[in-house]
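Per reviewer request, we include the raw input and output of the structure prediction for the construct analysed in the revised manuscript.
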Amino acid sequence: MIALMCNQVAQAELAYDLQTAKTRQDITKEEVQIDIVERRKLVDIEDKEILRFVKIRNFAINDLTVSIFIFTMISLFPAF
């Protein structure tokens, strides 16, 4: 009888430990998924920042080109 009770207690402890390990594993998987989502969002933000800087650079280049053109026109045709 005592052996049977000890066996049942041992099985219950093993079942508890197994469930605890599964829960820990699930938590770890979720944490990894959260890290993946965060990294993807950061990459997305960085891509958008790069596009923003490219637009700003292109605007600056176009603005400089227009300024050079105007300066050249004024220099060539001062009466304009």
